[in-house]
Amino acid sequence: MSADHNGDFTPVDKVIKYIQEAITNKEYLPGDRLPAERKLSEILGVGRPHIRKAIQRLEMYGIVRTMPQSGTFIAAFSKEQMENMVSETLKVSKYDFYSLVYVRVLLEIEVCKLAAKNRTEEDLKAIEEAVNTWENNSDEKNRVRNDFAIHKAIARSSHNPVLSSLLSIVTPDIMKYYHRFQFCISPERMVITEHREFLEKIRQRDVDGMKELVLRHLHNLILFAREKAGKEVPNFNFEGIE
User: Fold this and answer.
1) What is the pTM of this model?
2) pLDDT tens track for 23-56
3) What is the 3-class SS of the chain, one letter each residue?
């Protein structure tokens, strides 16, 4: 496959696009191992740090999985699902950050309400496991990934695959951008408490309490989005959302 790509892509986008084309051409199938960083760097003419960032982004979206001492593998999705997911990882960075945060809040409120209605005992175990993992591995390296895993487990508990997929598209880049700049980061103890509140409200099927909890949990993110907009923007208004 040719490694000649549109020069408008960032180096990270170039790596993602290369993998997308390989999936389209059936060069990479579910379960296949990707070439090593060094090999991909030689093929694409980009530095290994860019290769690493692209792999991390794909892993955040569940497109690939990295196994210690074994390498990085294509996840078990159909070719069509994989193409769509990879395409979205390229599109999302072009959206306005403030608008992305607004959409994420709307989606979070709805999936949390649905999770409280539809969750199973298996869902509760998955959420609790994700919360425990975050608490035990909340260092800077793992914080974003483990935080996303909690929200992903909650979204799956909604049993609405469309809402879950939409959250999986918009959330990872928002979280990475937010945490990278380290603005308005909530105290760790507060975050732990709020994650536990999500688990307990879902366990108790407390649908009515979800909106308040989501808005409280994402309050600093909303303020951060307004600050980064760098212009006069309308206030987030969720009064019409019950």
Assistant:
1) 0.60
2) 777 788 888 899 999 999 999 999 999 998 888 8
3) CCCCCCCCCCHHHHHHHHHHHHHHCCCCCCCCECCCHHHHHHHHCCCHHHHHHHHHHHHHCCCEEEECCCEEEECCCCHHHHHHHHHHHHHHHHCCHHHHHHHHHHHHHHHHHHHHHHCCHHHHHHHHHHHHHHHHCCCHHHHHHHHHHHHHHHHHHCCCHHHHHHHHHHHHHHHHHHHHHCCCCCCHHHHHHHHHHHHHHHHCCCCCCHHHHHHHHCHHHHHHHHHHHCCCCCCCCCCCCC
